[in-house]
Amino acid sequence: MRVRSNGHQLRRRESPSLEFGRTSPAFIDSFPFTSPALVWNSFLVQFDTSTAMGTKENGCAGSAQASAQVDKGVDFANYFCTYGYLYHQKEMLSDRLRMDAYFHAVSRNKHHFRGKAVLDVGTGSGILAIWCAQAGARKVYAVEATKMADHARDLVNQNGVQDVVQVFQGSMEDVTLPEKVDVIISEWMGYFLLRESMFDSVICARDRWLKPDGVMYPSHARMWLAPIRSGITDQKMEDLNCAMNDWHSFVDETEAHYGVNMSVLTKAYREEHEKYYLKTSLWCNLDPNQIIGSPAMIKEINCLQATVDEIRTITAQLMLPINADRSRISAYAGWFDVQFKGSEQNPAKDEVELTTGPDADGGTHWGQQVFLVNPPIRVNEGDKVLVSFQMSRAKQYHRLMDIELISELELSSGKRLPPITTRVSIE
Asked: Quaternary form (predicted)?
């Protein structure tokens, strides 16, 4: 089944989000810029940073390698800390598509949970752990890295499942469970599926604690890409030009009033603003009619089998047939879906899918990531766009992503135009 919910409106903010952790960023009709990660040292009081990241000794060498260069305190301040606040949890808990998918996946497949041991990775408020207990689990181990663990315990107690659900505060890489589990459940997905790199911790948990015949919730995930039309690229170029005009006026005034020529900084200033306006992905919930070509699947992940190395860099060769005449590819949109299928040995009785694709009813808090194409590519129905796609983890911080798209337009006549390269960061 494909979970849908009508009439739900996500909270929209009037200014760009300052949090690194997943949350609905600022949303206005012009697709606002999503701010980069910020480091807030004051948040460190919530967390024992000595346990923030895994080590090779605990059996999670893959996760440790991925984050070996990351300072534990900085990683917490950039990422974990935002999940320790109830306002952030409420925003995710208010996403009806997200909630319905997990609720139905558990409640309609109680045979996976009845009498079984379950591990909830990144339990947050604890709601998934509570649902697992209500579905008949014998024991649920709910692991949470932040002080949200205290609120999870309160909810567990209030809902009368404290004898079943045990909450651990600490990183998944460092927690030790008393037994192997039959099920691992986790809501680990970030923007465009892999931003945040939380799936590393789920893989670690699977390799350490899941029984050979165990199941994963979700069991599969897919990444998608499609060409879209929008006036956003023109608007962002106008914003960039306005910023540069303002800079030139500033340079002239500074020299006239203070005798200092600032023009040597013009190139660096422009590079900063090009990254801000054109080379950073945008968050949006698109309308389906903005898609002008057939979506293509970039990657399918089997959560029982995936490795950290497999998801560290994603590459794909895509062919996107255009189905709109006299249009422009202003950007590409990326999204994901996940499925709750169980396993081959122990399949789900009622499969559930959660999609974050364009939705006329408003979609999910994940929305879609929009990658601007500059200049836009003029296309007609019958044309094809051949896309070489690569996504890798940012060198500066492993939870962010860098994307390269090389687009080659093949006209309906068969003629191919020179390729256009687009490089974008997901921050």
From this structure: Ring-like homodimer.
Structure token digits, residue 306:
């995936």
Listed residue (391, 28, 49) closest to 191, CA to CA: 391
404 catalytically annotated: no
pTM: 0.84
Q: Tell me, yes or no, if 179 is annotated catalytic.
A: no
* Cα angle value 389/390/395 (rounded, 5°): 155
The 3-class SS string of 14-53 reads CCCCCCCCCCCCCCCCCCCECCCCCCCHHHHHHCCHHHCC
Q: Once rounded to an integer, what is the mean pLDDT over residues 303-310?
A: 97
Cα dihedral 62→67→73→78 (10° resolution): -110
What's the full length of the chain, in residues?
427
Catalytic position from the list 19, 144, 187, 427: 187
- 123 phi/psi in degrees, rounded to 5: -65, -25
- For tokens 């009622």, what's the residue? 350
Q: Which candidate in 196, 271, 272, 300 is catalytic?
A: 196
How many CA atoms lie within 13 Å of 299's alpha carbon, on the beta-carbon side?
22
Burial-class residue 115 by CB neighbours within 10 Å (0-12, 13-18, 19+).
exposed
* Other Cβ atoms closer than 10 A to 307: 11
Computed from CA positions of residues 260, 264, 265, 269, in that sequence, does the dihedral angle turn out positive or negative? positive
Cα-atom radius of gyration of the chain, to the nearest Å?
23
**Dihedral sign computed on CA atoms, order 399, 221, 205, 149:** positive
pLDDT one-digit tens code per residue, 165-223:
999 999 999 999 999 999 999 999 999 999 988 999 999 999 999 999 999 999 999 99
* CA–CA separation, 25 and 22 (whole Å): 8
